Amino acid sequence: MRSNYKNLIFKDISDEAIMEDPRKILADELVELGKSNKDIVFVSVDSSLGASGGPFNKNFPERHFEFGIAEQNGMGEAAGMATCGKIPFIAGYVPFVSYRCFEQVRDDVCKTNLNVNIIGNNSGFSVSALGPTHVILEDMGVLRSLPNLTILSPADGTEYRQSVKIAAEIKGPVYIRVSRIKARKLFDNGHKLIPGKANILKDEGDITIIATGTMVLNALIASSILEKKGIKTRVINMSTIKPVDEEIIIDSANKTRKIVTVEEHSVINGLGAAVAEVIVKNNPVKMKFLGTPDKFAVVGSYEECIDYYNLTPEKIALQVADFARES
Amino acid sequence: MTVALDKAEIKQLTERSYKCRKNILKMMRLGEAHIGGAFSSLDIMTVLYNKVLSHNPKEPKWEKRDRFILSAGHKCMALYTTLADQGYFEEEVLWTYNSFNTRVPMHPDEKVLPGIEFPTGSLGHGLAVGQGMAHIARMENPPFRVFVMLGDGESAEGSVWEAIMSAGHHKLDNLIAIVDRNGLQVNGETVKIMDTSILEEKYKAFGWEVRTIDGHDYNQIYDALASVPFVKGKPSAIIADTIKCKGLSFAEKKFEFHHWHFKENEVDDAIVNVENSCREELVKIEK
Question: Which residue range(s) make up the domain with A270?
Answer without folding.
Answer: 199-325
